[in-house]
Specification:
Layout lengths: L1 E3 L2 E7 L2 E2 L3 E5 L5 E8 L5 E7 L6 E7 L2 E8 L7 E5 L1 E3 L4 E9 L1 E3 L15 E13 L14 E3 L8 E5 L3 E2 L6 E17 H6 L8 H7 L2 H8 L6 E3 L10 H25 L19 E3 L2
Parallel strand pairs: 5-17, 12-14, 18-19
Antiparallel strand pairs: 1-2, 2-3, 2-6, 4-5, 6-9, 7-8, 7-13, 10-11, 11-15, 11-16, 13-17
């Protein structure tokens, strides 16, 4: 969850809260930005919470730079209130849910001259104070064309964008009012998880599992353990190890290490020289080529 003073916001994908990466807060504490991992053909929703407040607020949601919907959160001086946007209303009783989709590519060169919205690949929630002035008798549907096309030579290759799902029944009440200035803004930039991992925004695969499997006690105990030697063994055509080549490589390595050991002992002052065993010493993480 992202937190700005008395406002908290988060995104759910297929009903589950999604993790945020690289969270940044503006110097004035009014804007929060992060990255989330999108999932193709999964519905997503924008949620927020307003702590006890004496003023009504409205959360306006834009996706890929296009207006999705707004939600009024009425004031309460005793408890927090929640708001959410789950889709684009198309009537008083129906919405089309927001969903992630693979960005559609085209070879139509006319799209090369059409600049993509700077908000493509982002979900923006702006929270403003509002004064309710009217309850409209009719609802005018918004433009529901959310699909985005980009040229196949665009830098947006492999990215995701938003689309709208099939209509769902959801009765809603509507109101109109005067917005009185922004008090908070949350931006969730989204990309496929593998892209976030490649850009080192999200942790690499299985990193959390490796971290969980290693306890502090185990890490301390590993300090005193002998280093592991990583070996690469070349196999012959029959699938058997080339033993003779392996032994020659090991012997050559031992000779080099012995020479280094003798040179080091000769360089030490005689008063501090101690008897050493000329056993081969292997460096932790070293790769031995046994060809």
């Amino acid at each position: 969850m992202l937190q700005l003073e008395k406002f908290t916001a988060w995104v759910t994908i297929d009903g589950e809260e999604t993790p945020e990466y690289n969270v940044e807060i503006s110097d004035d504490g009014k804007e929060a930005t992060c990255w989330i991992a999108s999932q193709v053909n999964k519905p997503f929703e924008v949620h927020w919470r307003v702590e006890a407040n004496h003023v009504a607020t409205v959360g306006d949601v834009r996706v890929d730079g296009k207006s999705a919907s707004g939600k009024v959160v009425h004031p309460s001086v005793e408890m927090s209130q929640n708001g959410s946007v789950t889709g684009v209303p198309i009537s008083r009783t129906q919405i089309r849910p927001l969903m992630f989709s693979a960005t559609e590519l085209t070879d139509d060169d006319s799209y090369l001259n059409v600049g993509a919205s700077p908000e493509l690949g982002s979900i923006v929630l702006e929270i403003k104070n509002i004064v309710i002035i009217d309850t409209p008798s009719q609802y005018e549907p918004k433009d529901t064309q959310f699909e985005n096309k980009v040229h196949e030579r665009s830098k947006k290759l492999g990215a995701h964008s938003a689309r709208l799902g099939e209509p769902q029944y959801k009765p809603m009440r509507y109101a109109s009012g005067v917005r009185c200035g922004r008090v908070a803004m949350f931006t969730f930039r989204y990309r496929p998880l593998d892209i976030l991992q490649a850009q080192e925004i999200a942790p690499p695969p299985n990193s959390s599992k490796r971290k969980a499997d290693s306890t502090p006690d185990e890490d301390d105990a590993n300090v005193d353990k002998k280093p592991t030697i990583l070996e690469i063994i070349e196999l012959d055509d029959d699938g058997n190890e080339d033993v003779e080549s392996e032994l020659k490589a090991l012997q050559a390595r031992m000779d080099i290490l012995k020479a280094k050991q003798v040179k080091k002992e000769r360089a030490e002052p005689s008063a501090k020289r101690v008897k050493r065993e000329h056993n081969p010493v292997f460096i932790q993480g070293e790769i031995i080529d046994l060809t």
